[in-house]
Specification:
It is built from 14 helices and 15 strands. By secondary structure, it is an alpha/beta fold. It is globular and about 65 Å long.
């Protein structure tokens, strides 16, 4: 399996940059031969990976802010497309990322190579709509240039990529559903998954102290789409606030923090930690992890929490890792009353907490990055099989 993997950002940094880095490592462990084109590289990849950076030379990197992010992504795309043209017969599948894929997809089509477009989040139009609708409800304006501020140019570019790519790689059923709702055929949507780093996220070896104060944790970007305001409302309406602690770890959008400040100051049981680098430790010590998102791709934190023995309290956009009453409690997105009852259930019923924690730990091995690498390689195989079959049918009808 010879893979050209194109990623236009600083591979190995935070968020999707970390996801892409783990994907490449997982692919290598699954036996794939990877030719990697990152914009830049901040962490080493396995020695077998052939790396050609597009927007960096040594320690020098093209500053996105100077040239403009979309221009930089387009430059990466053109560079990869030109290099791909010289690789006829040497590549089996091309894996690309949003906003830097159009020219590479066109080049792959000319060479008869199937293309896979990563979808780290829901359909962009859905994401824009649901987040901006909630911002209007709260009276919040997203910062200029924020990734969820409605951007017609980005939307048109991504929708053209959706159309031209042979397959869309969906890391959750929720993501796939947002594309099916817009008329995309199921045959174009290939499922895979993300994972967690087993060396970092693991449970405490000793049994939980039944007398320990109940703790709930949120970690990540404190943004409207993550539903932190739902978590705060639900906590304040739950009995857990009487003798529990809700920790919030992460940075806020300024206007969102201003909106939440009056609620955060209502009760000392809510503790804002700010950005933290000790997430594995926080998860091991917490009883529950809350993520009441309005929109997601496949949140890594849910798998990380599960692997740490932390029971997930999530909305129904986060259900690939989390199964209601098996290893988590799931509520409909925006339903703070149900979320509040779920918090209260875990606080008051330690047997339920223990049962769900044990259910989470039983599934731990299904969501490592190694497992994710195998799932991605299977998706590639499915793509090649489908692409070859479609090409044969097209040739037969000519």
């Amino acid at each position: 399996m010879r893979v050209l993997y194109s990623f236009p950002h600083k591979m190995g940094a935070d968020r999707i940059c970390y996801t892409a880095w783990q994907q490449v490592r997982g692919l290598v462990s699954a036996g794939a031969d990877v030719l990697l084109f990152p914009g830049a590289l901040s962490r080493p990849v396995p020695d077998s990976v052939k790396v050609q950076t597009t927007l960096a030379r040594g320690k020098l990197r093209l500053p996105y802010k100077l040239v403009g992010k979309l221009r930089a992504l387009a430059l990466h795309d053109r560079i990869v497309a030109r290099r791909l043209e010289k690789l006829a017969g040497q590549i089996d599948v091309v894996h690309v990322w949003p906003c830097a894929a159009l020219e590479t997809i066109k080049a792959a089509k000319r060479l008869g190579i199937p293309t896979m477009l990563e979808r780290p989040n829901a359909h962009t139009r859905f994401a824009y709509e649901v987040v901006n609708q909630e911002c209007r409800r709260l009276g919040i304006t997203l910062p200029k240039g924020h990734e969820y501020e409605f951007n017609e140019k980005v939307l048109q570019l991504e929708e053209e990529e959706f159309r031209l790519a042979d397959y869309l790689l969906c890391p959750s059923d929720f993501v796939a559903q947002t594309f099916r709702d817009r008329g995309f055929p199921a045959t174009k949507l290939l499922r895979h998954q993300y994972g967690f780093e087993a060396e970092d996220f693991y449970p405490e070896p000793d049994p939980r102290d039944p007398n320990k104060k109940f703790t709930m944790l949120f970690a990540g970007q404190c943004a409207v789409r993550k539903g932190v305001h739902f978590a705060v409302d639900a906590w304040l309406a739950s009995p857990a606030k009487g003798n529990g602690v809700f920790y919030i770890a992460g940075g806020f959008i300024p206007e969102y923090r201003q909106y939440l400040d009056p609620f955060l100051k209502l009760d000392p049981s809510i503790v804002v930690l700010g950005h933290r680098s000790d997430l594995p430790t926080l998860m091991r010590k917490a009883d529950a992890f809350v993520l009441p998102s309005l929109e997601e791709g496949s949140p890594l934190v849910c798998a990380e929490a599960m692997a740490s023995g932390c029971v997930n309290l999530v909305s129904d956009v986060c259900t690939d890792v989390c199964q209601h009453m098996e290893n988590a409690l799931v509520h409909r997105a925006g339903d703070t009353d149900t979320l509040s009852r779920h918090i209260g259930s875990l606080y008051e019923d330690r047997d339920l907490l223990t049962t769900l924690r044990e259910g989470a730990l039983r599934k731990r091995g299904q969501f490592t990055w190694t497992t994710a690498g195998r799932a991605l390689r299977r998706a590639y195989s499915d793509a090649i099989t489908g692409y070859t079959a479609a090409a044969s049918i097209a040739l037969a009808t000519c």
